[in-house]
Amino acid sequence: MNAVDLDDVNKEQVKVLALQQYIAWLQDILEKPVSAEDNFLDIGGHSMIAIALNERVRNEFNLTLSMERLYNSTLSETFYSIK
């Protein structure tokens, strides 16, 4: 997937697309189903996965995820809280 052009899509739409892609990446890594309401750590995520996926989100969607929020909230809450 190429980087999303924020001129063509509003930021809320970018967050939705980024969350969907993040879930797909996480399912591939963890080899199990993941939902937007899952907590990253509870489903088996760890710091190395978080760093790698957060970098992909930054590069492809120009969004920066909070590691603290990622560890303490659901995936959807993490993405929708991005300013």
Structure description:
This protein has 83 residues and is mostly helical. It is 57% helix and 0% strand. It contains four helices and no strands.
CATH architecture: Orthogonal Bundle
How many distinct domains?
A: 1
Q: What sequence of helices (H) and strands (E) makes up the elements?
A: HHHH
Number of helices: 4
| Rg value | 12 Å
CATH fold-type name: Non-ribosomal Peptide Synthetase Peptidyl Carrier Protein, Chain A
Number of strands: 0
How does the helix and strand content classify structurally?
mainly alpha
- Biggest beta-sheet profile: none
Percent of residues in β-strands: under 5%
Shape: globular
Features:
single chain, 83 residues, mainly alpha, Non-ribosomal Peptide Synthetase Peptidyl Carrier Protein, Chain A, 4 helices, 57% helix
Topology:
Elements: H1 11-30, H2 47-61, H3 67-72, H4 75-80
Compact summary:
The chain has one domain (6-81): ACP-like (Non-ribosomal Peptide Synthetase Peptidyl Carrier Protein, Chain A, Orthogonal Bundle). The radius of gyration is 12 Å and the shape is globular.
